[in-house]
Design a protein that fits this description.
The complex is a heterodimer of chains A (about 110) and B (about 110). With about 110 residues, chain A is an all-beta fold. Chain A is about 0% helix and about 60% strand. The chains are: A mainly beta (about 110), B mainly beta (about 110).
Chain lengths: ~110, ~110
Protein backbone atom coordinates (compact mmCIF):
# COMPACT_ATOMS: atom_id res chain seq x y z
CA UNK A 1 0.00 0.00 0.00
CA UNK A 2 1.18 3.53 -0.74
CA UNK A 3 0.99 5.99 2.10
CA UNK A 4 3.33 8.76 1.01
CA UNK A 5 2.01 11.39 -1.31
CA UNK A 6 4.48 13.69 -2.98
CA UNK A 7 3.50 17.14 -4.04
CA UNK A 8 3.79 18.41 -6.70
CA UNK A 9 3.64 15.46 -9.10
CA UNK A 10 5.83 17.34 -11.55
CA UNK A 11 8.07 20.38 -11.24
CA UNK A 12 10.00 22.28 -13.91
CA UNK A 13 12.55 24.93 -12.99
CA UNK A 14 15.58 26.73 -14.41
CA UNK A 15 19.11 25.85 -13.48
CA UNK A 16 20.22 27.74 -10.39
CA UNK A 17 16.73 27.93 -8.88
CA UNK A 18 15.69 26.06 -5.75
CA UNK A 19 13.33 23.08 -5.94
CA UNK A 20 10.99 22.11 -3.12
CA UNK A 21 9.10 18.85 -2.95
CA UNK A 22 6.69 17.79 -0.25
CA UNK A 23 5.67 14.44 1.14
CA UNK A 24 2.68 13.67 3.34
CA UNK A 25 2.04 10.44 5.17
CA UNK A 26 -0.67 8.93 7.31
CA UNK A 27 0.69 6.76 10.11
CA UNK A 28 3.20 7.13 12.91
CA UNK A 29 6.72 6.67 11.57
CA UNK A 30 10.18 5.71 12.77
CA UNK A 31 11.96 7.56 10.00
CA UNK A 32 11.39 9.07 6.57
CA UNK A 33 13.75 8.63 3.64
CA UNK A 34 14.19 10.44 0.34
CA UNK A 35 15.43 8.75 -2.82
CA UNK A 36 16.28 9.88 -6.34
CA UNK A 37 15.64 7.90 -9.51
CA UNK A 38 17.15 8.84 -12.82
CA UNK A 39 15.23 7.72 -15.88
CA UNK A 40 15.53 3.97 -16.45
CA UNK A 41 17.76 3.45 -13.42
CA UNK A 42 17.43 2.21 -9.87
CA UNK A 43 16.76 4.43 -6.88
CA UNK A 44 19.53 6.09 -4.93
CA UNK A 45 19.16 6.85 -1.23
CA UNK A 46 19.64 10.57 -0.51
CA UNK A 47 18.87 11.21 3.12
CA UNK A 48 17.16 9.71 6.17
CA UNK A 49 15.51 11.78 8.86
CA UNK A 50 14.38 10.22 12.12
CA UNK A 51 11.07 10.99 13.78
CA UNK A 52 12.80 12.93 16.57
CA UNK A 53 14.67 15.16 14.10
CA UNK A 54 13.23 18.31 12.55
CA UNK A 55 15.82 19.20 9.92
CA UNK A 56 18.74 17.57 8.20
CA UNK A 57 21.25 18.75 5.61
CA UNK A 58 23.40 16.95 3.08
CA UNK A 59 25.29 19.10 0.60
CA UNK A 60 22.67 21.03 -1.41
CA UNK A 61 19.83 19.01 0.12
CA UNK A 62 17.77 20.12 3.07
CA UNK A 63 15.05 17.92 4.53
CA UNK A 64 12.51 18.95 7.13
CA UNK A 65 10.09 16.80 9.05
CA UNK A 66 6.93 17.91 10.83
CA UNK A 67 5.46 14.94 12.64
CA UNK A 68 2.49 16.95 13.91
CA UNK A 69 1.45 17.60 10.30
CA UNK A 70 2.75 14.24 9.10
CA UNK A 71 4.73 15.91 6.35
CA UNK A 72 8.27 16.34 5.08
CA UNK A 73 9.89 18.56 2.51
CA UNK A 74 12.99 18.16 0.37
CA UNK A 75 14.73 21.33 -0.78
CA UNK A 76 17.39 21.21 -3.46
CA UNK A 77 19.28 24.49 -3.60
CA UNK A 78 21.05 25.93 -6.66
CA UNK A 79 19.68 23.19 -8.88
CA UNK A 80 21.65 21.73 -11.78
CA UNK A 81 20.57 19.95 -14.93
CA UNK A 82 21.97 16.76 -13.38
CA UNK A 83 19.31 17.01 -10.65
CA UNK A 84 16.67 16.12 -13.25
CA UNK A 85 15.10 12.93 -11.88
CA UNK A 86 12.14 11.58 -9.96
CA UNK A 87 12.22 11.96 -6.20
CA UNK A 88 10.46 9.58 -3.84
CA UNK A 89 9.79 9.65 -0.15
CA UNK A 90 9.49 6.44 1.83
CA UNK A 91 8.35 6.00 5.39
CA UNK A 92 9.40 3.36 7.87
CA UNK A 93 6.21 2.36 9.60
CA UNK A 94 6.29 2.56 13.38
CA UNK A 95 3.17 0.50 13.91
CA UNK A 96 4.79 -2.91 14.15
CA UNK A 97 5.09 -3.59 10.43
CA UNK A 98 8.57 -2.16 10.27
CA UNK A 99 10.09 -4.66 7.91
CA UNK A 100 9.32 -2.68 4.81
CA UNK A 101 9.25 0.88 3.58
CA UNK A 102 6.06 2.49 2.34
CA UNK A 103 6.63 4.46 -0.87
CA UNK A 104 5.09 7.57 -2.32
CA UNK A 105 4.32 8.06 -6.01
CA UNK A 106 7.16 10.51 -6.59
CA UNK A 107 7.80 14.03 -7.89
CA UNK A 108 9.26 14.36 -11.37
CA UNK A 109 11.77 17.24 -11.41
CA UNK A 110 13.02 18.79 -14.64
CA UNK A 111 15.87 21.30 -14.36
CA UNK A 112 16.26 23.26 -17.59
CA UNK A 113 19.71 24.55 -18.58
CA UNK B 1 32.95 -1.77 -5.62
CA UNK B 2 30.05 -3.11 -3.59
CA UNK B 3 26.63 -3.05 -5.11
CA UNK B 4 23.64 -4.87 -6.52
CA UNK B 5 23.64 -6.40 -9.96
CA UNK B 6 20.42 -7.18 -11.78
CA UNK B 7 20.29 -9.13 -15.00
CA UNK B 8 19.23 -9.08 -17.69
CA UNK B 9 18.54 -5.39 -18.29
CA UNK B 10 15.75 -6.24 -20.77
CA UNK B 11 13.69 -9.43 -20.88
CA UNK B 12 10.89 -10.60 -23.11
CA UNK B 13 8.35 -13.21 -22.10
CA UNK B 14 6.15 -15.34 -24.29
CA UNK B 15 2.64 -16.30 -23.27
CA UNK B 16 2.64 -19.19 -20.80
CA UNK B 17 6.33 -18.89 -20.08
CA UNK B 18 8.04 -18.49 -16.72
CA UNK B 19 11.02 -16.16 -16.61
CA UNK B 20 13.60 -15.58 -13.87
CA UNK B 21 15.18 -12.26 -13.01
CA UNK B 22 18.55 -12.35 -11.31
CA UNK B 23 19.64 -10.21 -8.37
CA UNK B 24 23.07 -10.49 -6.75
CA UNK B 25 24.57 -8.29 -4.02
CA UNK B 26 28.05 -8.11 -2.52
CA UNK B 27 27.19 -5.66 0.25
CA UNK B 28 26.85 -8.40 2.86
CA UNK B 29 23.29 -7.26 3.50
CA UNK B 30 20.85 -9.54 5.28
CA UNK B 31 17.65 -8.18 3.76
CA UNK B 32 16.67 -8.18 0.10
CA UNK B 33 13.57 -6.96 -1.72
CA UNK B 34 11.81 -7.14 -5.06
CA UNK B 35 9.69 -4.24 -6.28
CA UNK B 36 7.57 -3.65 -9.30
CA UNK B 37 7.34 -0.17 -10.83
CA UNK B 38 4.75 0.75 -13.44
CA UNK B 39 4.99 3.98 -15.51
CA UNK B 40 4.46 7.07 -13.39
CA UNK B 41 3.96 4.97 -10.29
CA UNK B 42 5.76 4.38 -7.07
CA UNK B 43 7.23 1.08 -5.94
CA UNK B 44 5.09 -1.88 -5.00
CA UNK B 45 6.65 -4.63 -2.90
CA UNK B 46 6.48 -8.14 -4.36
CA UNK B 47 8.56 -10.20 -1.92
CA UNK B 48 11.20 -9.59 0.70
CA UNK B 49 13.67 -11.70 2.61
CA UNK B 50 15.25 -10.89 5.95
CA UNK B 51 17.57 -13.87 6.10
CA UNK B 52 18.72 -16.84 4.06
CA UNK B 53 16.06 -19.52 3.51
CA UNK B 54 13.28 -17.19 4.60
CA UNK B 55 11.08 -14.80 2.62
CA UNK B 56 7.75 -13.04 3.01
CA UNK B 57 5.04 -11.96 0.60
CA UNK B 58 4.71 -8.29 -0.09
CA UNK B 59 1.68 -6.43 -1.35
CA UNK B 60 1.51 -7.97 -4.85
CA UNK B 61 3.03 -11.48 -4.57
CA UNK B 62 0.46 -13.31 -6.73
CA UNK B 63 2.02 -14.69 -9.90
CA UNK B 64 5.57 -14.37 -8.57
CA UNK B 65 7.94 -16.66 -6.67
CA UNK B 66 11.35 -16.22 -5.07
CA UNK B 67 14.09 -18.18 -3.35
CA UNK B 68 16.87 -17.19 -0.98
CA UNK B 69 19.35 -20.05 -0.87
CA UNK B 70 22.38 -17.78 -0.56
CA UNK B 71 22.83 -14.47 1.22
CA UNK B 72 24.05 -12.84 -1.99
CA UNK B 73 21.27 -13.95 -4.29
CA UNK B 74 17.51 -13.36 -4.45
CA UNK B 75 16.11 -14.42 -7.84
CA UNK B 76 12.53 -13.58 -8.83
CA UNK B 77 10.47 -15.82 -11.09
CA UNK B 78 7.58 -14.27 -12.96
CA UNK B 79 5.21 -17.14 -13.59
CA UNK B 80 2.61 -17.60 -16.30
CA UNK B 81 0.00 -16.91 -13.62
CA UNK B 82 1.04 -13.25 -13.65
CA UNK B 83 -1.25 -11.95 -16.38
CA UNK B 84 0.14 -8.42 -16.59
CA UNK B 85 3.89 -8.78 -16.09
CA UNK B 86 5.03 -5.84 -18.23
CA UNK B 87 6.84 -3.53 -15.80
CA UNK B 88 10.19 -2.36 -14.48
CA UNK B 89 11.47 -4.68 -11.74
CA UNK B 90 13.82 -3.42 -9.07
CA UNK B 91 15.83 -5.41 -6.58
CA UNK B 92 17.11 -3.81 -3.38
CA UNK B 93 18.96 -4.74 -0.23
CA UNK B 94 19.49 -3.31 3.23
CA UNK B 95 21.61 -4.24 6.22
CA UNK B 96 18.56 -5.48 8.04
CA UNK B 97 14.86 -5.20 7.30
CA UNK B 98 14.32 -2.69 10.05
CA UNK B 99 14.00 0.87 8.76
CA UNK B 100 17.35 0.87 6.99
CA UNK B 101 18.15 2.72 3.76
CA UNK B 102 17.89 0.46 0.74
CA UNK B 103 20.42 0.03 -2.04
CA UNK B 104 19.01 -0.64 -5.50
CA UNK B 105 20.08 -2.38 -8.64
CA UNK B 106 19.49 -0.79 -12.03
CA UNK B 107 16.42 -2.81 -12.79
CA UNK B 108 15.11 -5.27 -15.36
CA UNK B 109 12.49 -4.18 -17.86
CA UNK B 110 10.15 -7.06 -18.68
CA UNK B 111 7.91 -7.01 -21.73
CA UNK B 112 5.50 -9.46 -23.31
CA UNK B 113 6.08 -10.76 -26.82
Amino acid sequence: SQQGEEDPQALSIQEGENATMNCSYKTSINNLQWYRQNSGRGLVHLILIRSNEREKHSGRLRVTLDTSKKSSSLLITASRAADTASYFCATADNAGNNRKLIWGLGTSLAVNP
Amino acid sequence: DGGITQSPKYLFRKEGQNVTLSCEQNLNHDAMYWYRQDPGQGLRLIYYSQIVNDFQKGDIAEGYSVSREKKESFPLTVTSAQKNPTAFYLCASSQTALNQPQHFGDGTRLSIL
